[in-house]
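Try it yourself: sequence plus adenosine-5'-triphosphate, in.
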Amino acid sequence: MDLLSQGSFAVLGLSSARESALQDCVALPCRLTRPHSFKLSKRISQDRFGPRSFPCRLEHDNGKESRIESGPVRSQKVDSDGLGSMLTTQNGTGHLIEFSDALHTVAKALEEVAVKRAHAQAEAAQWKHKYEMELLRSAHLERLLADNAALDSSRQGYPLAMSDVETDADELRASNLSTQKPPNGCLNGSSQSKENSSNQRVLGYNTDPFNNLYLDTQLEEEVSDKASFTLTWDPVDERRQRQNHDLVSFESGNINTEVRSNKQITLVWKSPPRSIFILLKPNAVTVQQLCKEMVWWLREQNVANIFVEPRVKAGLLKESTDFDFIQTCETDKQLMDINKRVDLVITLGGDGTMLWAASLFKGPMPPLVAFSMGSLGFMTKFQSSLYRESLQAIMRGPAYITLRHRLHCQIIRNSSTADGDTSSEPSEYLVLNEVSIDRGMSSALSNLECFCDGHFVTIVQGDGLIISSPSGSTAYSLAAGGSVVHPQVPGILFTPICPHSLSFRPLILPDYVTLRVQLPLNCRGQAWASFDGKGRQQLWGGDALIVRMSEWPVPAVCEKESSGDFLRSVRESLHWNRRNIQLADERPFYPN
Ligand SMILES: NC(=O)c1ccc[n+]([C@@H]2O[C@H](COP(=O)([O-])OP(=O)(O)OC[C@H]3O[C@@H](n4cnc5c(N)ncnc54)[C@H](O)[C@@H]3O)[C@@H](O)[C@H]2O)c1
Ligand SMILES: Nc1ncnc2c1ncn2[C@@H]1O[C@H](COP(=O)(O)OP(=O)(O)OP(=O)(O)O)[C@@H](O)[C@H]1O
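Structure, out:
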């Protein structure tokens, strides 16, 4: 019977004209069947069946129903895909037991079917996803091949008219200058490649036909040697093939959610990444070893520019002068401009190294690949032993991206109360995890006045407060009792640290709000602000900290895809809900 494979039913009518008989017959199967498989509802059906007849109906969730049994002494086979059960009624109480047995069997069968179906559905979804990724990849490659073929033919026989060239140069200039506000559903990488090197053609990527010769000098300085890419949101509503990022529409008087915000974001390179910045956890020999290997391998892959930090370059050069092709950022100015020169960032270390990498990019940040060489590795999902395969796939694209939102934090000093010179300390930070305000060495209760978009929220009296991004929800905020939030959920977490109150629950606020935490002028204790666990600064009475969502997220490349990576980390790194599985019920079935 087809309806058995549908998984969920309600037994609606075990009826009798007599109320007492009805109670009996309803009570018995109710006790013996599994409550999560069946819902029993009392519904008195027609009198005509008499006291010993128990017709019942199995009803689909969708409202269709099917009669299993009717009449006083009859049996009927219920069969579905090899799963079956015999329902038999007899005179006396025996029929009730058999009926309950039968229901129990059906319940078990349904449960098995439901489990198998869920597995099959999950597997099918995975295959569909792989297929779609493959389609995307081959479409992209085809497009690139076609572009290259067109380019070849134009080079060979059809010299470009100057007007064509100028138009293209204008478009290029416009596209470079308009990268800060991308169109809905599609973010463009920050610039076009300046050089047209041979390796681009070897890998089959689109090359810039004009060698960017027509960019003006100023633009040339800004653009330098960057690869370009697009970020697209998978359309959720495939029927409409919408690529936009609108959340809500208002059509013919009805407000409806058009496209959900939590979508997979895909990175597609338009030209291959040519400049890679490798960041290493300090004081780790295995990390340095891997860095050396990786540098040579990247060179073999025709990566033109490899950057490391000055201390790493010094270490490599000490070992061999063969490493003199490696570049570094010697000055603060070069470091400030690093985003303009780097296509991809690689971190070798733990979560702290990823936080460190993010802290170096005080504006837009290129895609980041984090190899796990730390102890916890919540955000570092790539296995270092598989770096060749992983990097090859990422540099070829497409790859899924988690846009990890950062918080912009600004300290506003009350000059009249500042106790010490803070002018040399930065007043603005971009944090990937959180900003925390604690009571430092003071043993007095902290006293923090909090406002959200100018509205008073509360006064934190306790050890302090954590204002966290969704990515930071699994770090300090988690330790303080905050909720675990998927990194793509747009929000700001407001988590107190050891509040001296029974009712101070953590909050999650929308991403568009601006928070202000202020120290009262007459506060007793101290307050210290830390930014991703670093850059501690003391705050005095009247000082304020302003926190809002930054427009510069960290685009972290996913190992599989955003939710899969996150849930694996929650389970494997945090051991979330780890508990021995309860043994299955092995007792024989004894009805009362
Ligand atoms: N009580 C606490 O749990 C506590 C106290 C202070 C700082 N921290 C966290 O440490 C972070 C700094 O990290 P670090 O490596 O530079 O310092 P660290 O070396 O002290 O390591 C802190 C630990 O937190 C883990 N971690 C960092 N970010 C994470 C994230 N987003 N999700 C899950 N785990 C994460 C790291 O893997 C590491 O094991 C801070 O941003 C803060 O969130 C936590
Ligand atoms: N390139 C870097 N320069 C300076 N400090 C760094 C750098 N990379 C990492 N750190 C710092 O080194 C510390 C340890 O790094 P990391 O957290 O990556 O290693 P771990 O503690 O072994 O790994 P995990 O975070 O998985 O436990 C962190 O505090 C981090 O801020």
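One thing you can check immediately is this: Residues 279-282, 309, 349-353, 355-356, 374-377 surround adenosine-5'-triphosphate (ligand 2) (CB under 6 Å).
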